[in-house]
Amino acid sequence: MKRILSLIILISISVFSVTAQELEDSTLWKIEGNGLEKPSYLFGTIHITCDATLEDDVKKALNETTQIVMELDMDDPNMQSKMMQGMYLKDGKTLKDFVTEEEYKSIDSLFINNMGMSVKLLENVKPFFLSSMFYPKMIDCPMQSFELELTKIASEENEEILGLETIEEQINIFDDIPLEDQYKDLVRMAKGNLEKDKAIFSKMLKIYKDEDINALIDIMNDDTYSTMSKHQDILLEQRNKNWISKIDEYVKEQPTFFGVGAGHLPGENGVIQLLRNIGYTVTAVID
């Protein structure tokens, strides 16, 4: 359960940046050079999917590495409790302080129709947690996750899972984004009853299957999504920059398999280019 709950954070924060530099169609990249004796690998994931089966090249990369690093330490026993502590609005605020009566009714109907419960029970929960509850509803199949699959493999191989950031750091990211923008997205989801969201997510799954990480960018630059389109510097670019020194340390210690949201890979402030900037050779692994 704690792993499923932690995916709420991963899914909410995994967005995609603008890029002028086209990259090869691949979700798996090899990290070499800069004095490394053995390569490490960078794998772009999608946090919700119908099929999280790992391809042979990904399995090979896992076999060649000795530790797995994801956005979060997915086997942290305190993950759930830490997340719960950051779920709630401050200063006694509730949903009704940010939306009109009509908007509240739309959100309540969305919860009743899709969750079988009223939003009245969750009025003091932060908006991005409320929105994230509907992400599994975007697909017409049982939800699978590459993060959970990688966690399973690490457990089977007795390998430790490490994180590039803490659950507290991920939660705090949204505290820097105006609540008005976050509630705007929730209201739009409610008024559209998830129809546009489902259509966009279906397109995203197709693009991910094709490993066209550049094409994901246009979807996430859609200004329909206020939180993502207006605040990519907070949600993506600064996080990428913060990760580079940690990735640098990990790969120097031992061959490492990194699994992060695919949208973190492209762009001049994407992980691939930032690693190249500090001297690493990062190349696509093409079947």
Structure classification: alpha/beta
C-alpha geometry = globular
Main pleated sheet: 6 strands, mixed
Our measurement of the CA-to-CA distance between the termini, rounded to an integer number of angstroms, reads: 35 Å
Helix content: 40-55%
The value of Rg in angstroms is: 19 Å
Query: How many discrete structural domains?
Result: 1
Into which percentage range does the β-strand content fall? 5-15%
Element pattern in H and E: HEEHEHHHHEHHHHHHEHE
Q: What is the overall pLDDT average?
A: 88
Low-confidence stretches: 11-20
**DSSP strand tally:** 6
Helix segment count? 13
What this model shows, in words?
This protein has about 290 residues and is an alpha/beta fold. The protein has one domain (about 1-285). The protein is about 45% helix and about 10% strand. It has 13 helices and 6 strands. The chain has helices at about 1-15, 55-65, 80-85, 100-115, 125-130, 145-155, 165-175, 180-190, 195-210, 215-220, 225-230, 230-255, 270-275; strands at about 30, 40-45, 65-70, 160-165, 255-260, 280-285. A 6-stranded mixed beta sheet has the order 4-3-5-2-1-6, with helices on both faces. The longest helix is centred in the C-terminal third of the chain and has 22 residues, at about 230-255. The radius of gyration is 19 Å and the shape is globular. The two termini are about 35 Å apart. Residues about 10-20 have low confidence and may be disordered.
